[in-house]
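Problem 12. The chain below contains 150 residues. Write out its predicted structure in token notation.
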Amino acid sequence: MDAFENYFAGLRNKSIAVLGLGVSNRPLVRLLLEFGCDVVGCDKTPREKLDDEVLALEGAPPGLEPEQQVLDTLGAEELTRMILDLREPYKTPCRLVLLEQHTAAQAAQLCGRPPKTVEAQVYRAKKMLAQQILQNDRIPCERRSVHGTV
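Solution.
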């Protein structure tokens, strides 16, 4: 077993949240499922507007969870507080992109940072938020697990 497979084997049966179900995160979700991880997928897009590829991922029982369900569970105020409690350099880009709905390019301009830096900071912050949500066990287990492969 190479280092890559060994790493993912260590994640087997662990709960992992993926924030954002855009095109760039879908291969990650498939890979995690393939290695037997429990995945919760969160996205701000309303369920009725999710595309067929995301809904197909949901078909892996018991299904992925859209970000709206996370908001329903946590509440917008709590999620906002979690974002505002992030440390810099993550808090400002996340506030601009996730709360104020700026694009990464607009947030980069406002922060005086390169766009790729802002994108990376938002990505890392989403990972930190997902970890906090799962560690605090804020999402009931029966609503957050995805088992199997896609």
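Discussion. Strands lie at 15-19, 38-42. Students who got a different answer should revisit the alignment rule from Section 12.3.
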